[in-house]
């Protein structure tokens, strides 16, 4: 009589169902399209509007995270308002730090970066007001 295998409690490991990994590239709206969509969805909550405009990401576990900061920045930019624009640097030297040091002779030097930013010319005059731990300089208008 042929010998049959004894039944075992062990089961063959089941193959894990493959998760569908379709990655959709989320392209958020910008410019006029964003303005129109925001106007159209004005009745929704801010987070729902941001999500509908494409300002969200989906994590590995499927959680949806709305990025309101990028949404607000894009809305402002669509209105022609830029906030985080960095000042243009001419590529030479350091950027102005808005600090000055008192020299040994007691003078304070205001650098060229500041005078250039204010369009100051040699001979321009200022009214000096001294306060508690600060000095205010007020330009006296040039005579024409």
Helix tally? 4
Assembly category: single chain
Category by helix and strand content: alpha+beta
Radius of gyration: 32 Å
Q: Secondary-structure blueprint of this entry?
A:
Blueprint: H1 31-40, H2 46-52, E1 56-58, E2 64-66, H3 68-78, H4 112-117, E3 126-131, E4 134-139
Antiparallel strand pairs: 1-2, 3-4
Helix pairs in contact: 1-3
What would you say this structure looks like, in words?
With 144 residues, the chain is an alpha+beta fold. 24% of the residues lie in helices and 12% in strands. The chain is elongated. The mean pLDDT is 78.
Would you summarize the structure shown here?
The protein is of the alpha+beta class and 144 residues long.
Which features would summarize this protein structure in a list?
single chain; 144 residues; alpha+beta; two-stranded antiparallel sheet; two-stranded antiparallel ribbon; 4 strands; 24% helix; 12% strand; elongated
